[in-house]
Amino acid sequence: MSAITLEGPVVEQLRAASSRTSLCDPTGQPIGYVISTADYIKLQYADARQRYTDADIEEMRRRPPEGISTDELIKRLKKKWATKQSGATAPSGNLISTN
Q1: How far is Cα of residue 28 from the mean position of the Cα atoms in its chain?
Q2: Helix, strand, or coil (residue 39)
Q3: Which tens digit of pLDDT belongs to each residue from 19-68?
Q4: Which of the two residues, 94 and 17, has the higher pLDDT score?
Q5: Nearest-angstrom CA–CA distance, 42 and 75
Q6: 22-47 as b/e, with b when 16 or more CB fall inside 10 Å?
Q7: Phi-psi category of 67—alpha, beta or left, where left has phi over 0 and alpha has psi -120 to 50?
Q8: Confidence of residue 2 (pLDDT cuts 50, 70, 90)
C-alpha cells in the first residue's frame, strides 16, 4: 500500500468528511476513495472471514510458529561469520548490506 502525506486544508476536509469519501481531480472525476480506519478494519475482517473458515483459523492457532526470531537470526549470522573468519569476531552494526 502506498502512503501519501497530506497537508493543510485537505487534512481537515478529510477529518470532517463522512467515513467514506471520494477524492476527485479538478474536473470532478474520482481518482480514489478514502475510508475511515474503523471501516478499513471491518473490511479486513470481512475479507478474512470469506477466505478462512473457523476450522482453518483454529488449525492455524494450534500450529507452531514457523521461522525464527530476529534475535535468533542475528545469533546464527554472527556464529557463521565467526566460523568463516577463522575465529575472528563478528562485525558490529548492520549485518545486511543495502548496496
Answers
A1: 32
A2: helix
A3: 789 999 999 999 999 998 889 999 999 998 899 998 998 998 898 888 88
A4: 17
A5: 39
A6: eeeeeeeeeeeeeeeeeeeeeeeeee
A7: left
A8: confident
User: Measured between alpha carbons, how far is 82 from 43 in angstroms, rounded to an integer?
Assistant: 48
Grid coordinates standing for 10?
485537505
Q: And the C-alpha cell for 84?
A: 568463516
Measured distance between the N- and C-terminal CA atoms of the chain, rounded to whole angstroms: 24
pLDDT digits (tens, 9 = 90+) for 6-16: 889 988 888 88
Strands (E), the chain: 20-24, 30-35
Set of cell numbers at residue 14: 478529510
Question: Residue 21: what residue type?
Answer: T
- Grid coordinates of 1: 500500500
Please count the residues of the chain. 99
Phi-psi region of 81 (alpha: psi -120 to 50; beta: other; left: phi over 0): alpha
pLDDT at 99 over 50: no
